[in-house]
Amino acid sequence: MIPDRQLAAVAGLDRSVRRFPPDASCATATCQAWSALFLTSTTNPTLCYRCRLERDHLPFDREHHVGGHGSPIVAEVTPNLHRACSWFQVVTWQALGIEPASSLAISIDYGALAVLREVVR
């Protein structure tokens, strides 16, 4: 059985995907973020989370707690990478009820961060 929190996260991403045309991407010429996970539906033209924060001159805490809050391991990440890492936490170890900052949560997050850093800019 799929845990409620995991199901809600997947359903939320599905709703986000359906808000945009299949070829949607960030309108910033130097960015081109392509995933609905990063795109914001409240901007016209469509922008990713990072470009919206930059456009609106909003601050962003670039620290991601690998393994959740309370973890001694903190990684510097971009806004879009932070969204991907946080979503991954929800659908993996959080959905399974693994304790934040535990060695298992940190291990899962560390592996995901290594892969996501190669994919998300």
Number of helices: 4
Average residue pLDDT: 89
Record field, number of beta strands: 4
Structural class: mainly alpha
How would you sum up the major sheet?
A: 2 strands, antiparallel
Please list the strands of the largest sheet in the order they lie side by side.
Answer: 1-2
Q: What low-confidence regions span 5 or more consecutive residues with pLDDT below 50?
A: none
When the domains are counted, the total is: 1
Distance from N terminus to C terminus (CA atoms, Å) equals 33 Å
Radius of gyration from the CA trace? 15 Å
Main features:
two-stranded antiparallel sheet, 121 residues, mainly alpha, single chain
Structure, explained:
With 121 residues, the protein is mainly alpha-helical. It has one domain. It has helices at 4-19, 49-55, 79-94, 103-119, and strands spanning 39-40, 47-48, 63-65, 74-76. The strands form two sheets. It has a two-stranded antiparallel ribbon. It has a two-stranded antiparallel sheet with strand order 3-4. The longest helix has 17 residues, at 103-119. The mean pLDDT is 89.
Short description:
The chain has helices at 4-19, 49-55, 79-94, 103-119; strands spanning 39-40, 47-48, 63-65, 74-76. The chain has 121 residues and is mainly alpha-helical. The relative contact order is 0.15.
Map the helices and strands.
Blueprint: H1 4-19, E1 39-40, E2 47-48, H2 49-55, E3 63-65, E4 74-76, H3 79-94, H4 103-119
Antiparallel strand pairs: 1-2, 3-4
Helix pairs in contact: 1-3, 3-4
